[in-house]
Amino acid sequence: MSESSTRDFYDELARDYHLIFRDWDASIAHQAKVLDELLRSGLGPGPHRVLDCSCGIGTQAIGLALRQHDVVGSDLSPLAATRAAAEAAARGVSLPATAADMRRLPFRSSVFDVVLCADNSLPHLLSAQDVRAALLGMRRVLRDDGLLMITLRDYDDARLARPTATQPQVSETPDGQVINFQLWHWHEDGERYDLEHFQLAPAQSTWNVRVRRTTYWALTRRQLTEFVAEAGFTDLSWHTPASSGYYQPVLTARRASSP
């Protein structure tokens, strides 16, 4: 992963990230409901201390804080992390958030009940070495028997079909409709792709076109399962959108208790 280019992508997107959603607050509430159910079914009623290590502007972290969990956020993008804390405060909850690389989490060991890495963030890591470093760091900051939760795109089919674009999505704003879509440019290895994110926003009698670029590793479920098990997690379980109601597959796993 090019740390600077990924950070630039999200720094540039931070102001407009909510425009990806048709209704951001509705998405905050729905995603938190599903993740909270998975979390409480694994650890009990709580509340629990949660680290969202790819918090972005707070989509999952704010919702979990509104559900009474003690949530801390971190993100590679300082602008996104700053906005997440501000958006949480505007909704009446506290969300301490800091800029941090998930491969080098700046937290003490064994302090969180849950580590969440959502929104297809882990696949920004483009090598096995980087994925291992991130997962070992997540394991380090989890308490014994703590819960890891990772969500990512369903890449099993994508690796076969190699889609080149996503369907345009339209969001309604006070200033008019905003259109989002992506172009995918696959690498020769068939596993990684460069993404161009297009956002078209109304501007008087024309459109303001914003284009941001980043790169992903299209990790299959089998690949991620092997990485997570290798990092020392047990009780791995996949929750599909059909079974959980979440918009991406969710992998849950437990940090094995120390001897």
UniProtKB/TrEMBL annotation:
GO terms for molecular function: methyltransferase activity. It is an enzyme of class 2 (transferase). InterPro entries: Methyltransf_25, SAM-dependent_MTases_sf. GO terms for biological process: methylation. Residues 50-146 form the Methyltransferase domain. Keywords: Methyltransferase, Transferase. Pfam families: Methyltransf_25 (PF13649). Its EC number is 2.1.1.-. PANTHER family: METHYLTRANSFERASE (PTHR43591). This is Putative methyltransferase.
